Amino acid sequence: MLLTSLLFSLLLSLSASATQVPFSVGAPSTSPLTFQLRHLHATTNTSQILFSDVQPGSLSDGLQGDPETYTINTQLIKTHRPSSFASYERAREKAFRWDRHIKDDGIEELSWPEDIVMAPNVTDRETLLLLAKMTNNAYAHEDNGREWYDLGKQWNTSFPFGWEQDGDGFRGHIFATPDNSTVVISIKGTSAGLLGGGGPTTKKDKLNDNLLFSCCCARVSFTWSTVCGCYAGGSKCDQNCVEASLVDDSLFYPIGTNLYNNVSYMYPDSNIWVIGHSLGGALASLIGVTFGSPVVAFEAPGERMAAGRLHLPSPPSTHHVTHVYHTADPIAMGTCNGALSSCAIAGYAMESRCHLGQSIIYDTVTQWGWAVDIRLHPIRIIVEKLLAQDWPIPPGSPPDNTTILSKVPEPKPEDDCVECFAWEYGDFLDPGNW
Ligand SMILES: *[C@@H]1O[C@H](CO)[C@@H](O)[C@H](O)[C@H]1NC(C)=O
Ligand SMILES: *[C@@H]1O[C@H](CO)[C@@H](O)[C@H](O)[C@H]1NC(C)=O
Ligand SMILES: *[C@@H]1O[C@H](CO)[C@@H](O)[C@H](O)[C@H]1NC(C)=O
Ligand SMILES: *[C@@H]1O[C@H](CO)[C@@H](O)[C@H](O)[C@H]1NC(C)=O
Ligand SMILES: *[C@@H]1O[C@H](CO)[C@@H](O)[C@H](O)[C@H]1NC(C)=O
Ligand SMILES: *[C@@H]1O[C@H](CO)[C@@H](O)[C@H](O)[C@H]1NC(C)=O
């Protein structure tokens, strides 16, 4: 009797402190979480982040299912968080100085305390499907055919200008569990320019993308005017120059850290996950590496090189970041880069191919005979075609087949990935000529 009540009170105190105190590894405390859409976020043409609250019942569904709640399977994972964002930024500064042979003024080494957090169960297909829907516009508005809904009236009070004119920045949703214990930041990227849309920030985004995801300032061929002056002839590229161009111009990463800081300010005690599609996925990963948050990124271009160029301090492990993509998507595969490719024609050089963390790669080219095509990149393809059925069952098989071997390809780190192998990086140029 005494033992039972002791155990009972122990269990109670364990569950009460579960959100602050790390779980012991393997503790069976995973349970599905139910999320509701709380806010929409967007960036303006001046990279300011806007939030708009969602009133329950105000949105109608574009896809199947309950439009406002998402139940997600969880698992416990190990993650590494820097002790503070300030110490992380100091470590980044130190790395920049080190590379430029500037004497560092005794900045302390960054420590990466380990933490066990509840994360989405990425080996569960239904979980991936729901997360993919959460990165997508799952809601239809009057203008049903568009890739993104019109936020329209909801923005009217706090913000004088309309969404539409500024409609090309990062944008997405913020979901929270009813008790606010877990919050999901979902980021939809800026693929509009690439896929034929456009907007006032397209030019700047393109500059950023070409700096982050191309080998050398988007010098695809001799006909290209490069976005920075780091090309040193032949196949040579000046490394410090490429990095300096990014520091000067890249909004991509600061948008992400501002967004995260804003959300963690709104939800100070919550476990935060970050998910995203395309460039939003790359941004989600860089945020997750910075803050130690669980990440699921869909069809992101290779962001490992970008993390290096931005001098992000690297945690002991990035396995809390999971990429999901398929082999027929030239953006995620880093193959959208020939001078005649659809990316190049739109003025993008998406040449990077290596991803951080671990990757769940659906080989749709070999298994399903898909032909590589940029039109297989949108999140709707992921939701409606890729994750709509178990893998590796070929399309057309009976959906109730119970002999399925694997529901999701096994997550693996991209250990053997080589970036920009045709390029040689080094100190080739006089900084005066950058
Ligand atoms: C941003 O958009 C607003 C209105 O849409 C416009 O007045 C302003 O000039 C734009 N700013 C920049 C930097 O493009
Ligand atoms: C994650 O999902 C897979 C597939 O549904 C399941 O086999 C596994 O037990 C789940 N893991 C946890 C920790 O619930
Ligand atoms: C903003 O839109 C809402 C809903 O349409 C409306 O009730 C409200 O009066 C509007 N506010 C302003 C300042 O226009
Ligand atoms: C959750 O956070 C929201 C702020 O977005 C707050 O209004 C609400 O009261 C919080 N709910 C709980 C149960 O703490
Ligand atoms: C978001 O963060 C930025 C900078 O970190 C700050 O200037 C801004 O006021 C914050 N916005 C909100 C809505 O919290
Ligand atoms: C179920 O899938 C397995 C593996 O693909 C296949 O061998 C089997 O014939 C399928 N069963 C049915 C009833 O379709």
From TrEMBL:
<dbReference type="GO" id="GO:0004806">
    <property type="term" value="F:triacylglycerol lipase activity"/>
</dbReference>
<keyword id="KW-0442">Lipid degradation</keyword>
<feature type="signal peptide">
    <location>
        <begin position="1"/>
        <end position="18"/>
    </location>
</feature>
<protein>
    <recommendedName>
        <fullName>triacylglycerol lipase</fullName>
        <ecNumber>3.1.1.3</ecNumber>
    </recommendedName>
</protein>
<dbReference type="GO" id="GO:0004620">
    <property type="term" value="F:phospholipase activity"/>
</dbReference>
<dbReference type="GO" id="GO:0005775">
    <property type="term" value="C:vacuolar lumen"/>
</dbReference>
<dbReference type="InterPro" id="IPR002921">
    <property type="entry name" value="Fungal_lipase-type"/>
</dbReference>
<dbReference type="GO" id="GO:0006660">
    <property type="term" value="P:phosphatidylserine catabolic process"/>
</dbReference>
<feature type="domain" description="Fungal lipase-type">
    <location>
        <begin position="263"/>
        <end position="289"/>
    </location>
</feature>
<keyword id="KW-0967">Endosome</keyword>
<comment type="subunit">
    <text>Binds to both phosphatidylinositol (PI) and phosphatidylinositol 3,5-bisphosphate (PIP2).</text>
</comment>
<keyword id="KW-0732">Signal</keyword>
<keyword id="KW-0378">Hydrolase</keyword>
<keyword id="KW-0325">Glycoprotein</keyword>
<comment type="function">
    <text>Lipase which is essential for lysis of subvacuolar cytoplasm to vacuole targeted bodies and intravacuolar autophagic bodies. Involved in the lysis of intravacuolar multivesicular body (MVB) vesicles. The intravacuolar membrane disintegration by ATG15 is critical to life span extension.</text>
</comment>
<dbReference type="InterPro" id="IPR050805">
    <property type="entry name" value="ATG15_Lipase"/>
</dbReference>
<dbReference type="InterPro" id="IPR029058">
    <property type="entry name" value="AB_hydrolase_fold"/>
</dbReference>
<keyword id="KW-0072">Autophagy</keyword>
<dbReference type="GO" id="GO:0034727">
    <property type="term" value="P:piecemeal microautophagy of the nucleus"/>
</dbReference>
<keyword id="KW-0735">Signal-anchor</keyword>
<dbReference type="Pfam" id="PF01764">
    <property type="entry name" value="Lipase_3"/>
</dbReference>
<dbReference type="GO" id="GO:0046461">
    <property type="term" value="P:neutral lipid catabolic process"/>
</dbReference>
<keyword id="KW-0472">Membrane</keyword>
<comment type="similarity">
    <text>Belongs to the AB hydrolase superfamily. Lipase family.</text>
</comment>
<keyword id="KW-1133">Transmembrane helix</keyword>
<dbReference type="GO" id="GO:0032585">
    <property type="term" value="C:multivesicular body membrane"/>
</dbReference>
<keyword id="KW-0812">Transmembrane</keyword>
<keyword id="KW-0443">Lipid metabolism</keyword>
<dbReference type="GO" id="GO:0034496">
    <property type="term" value="P:multivesicular body membrane disassembly"/>
</dbReference>
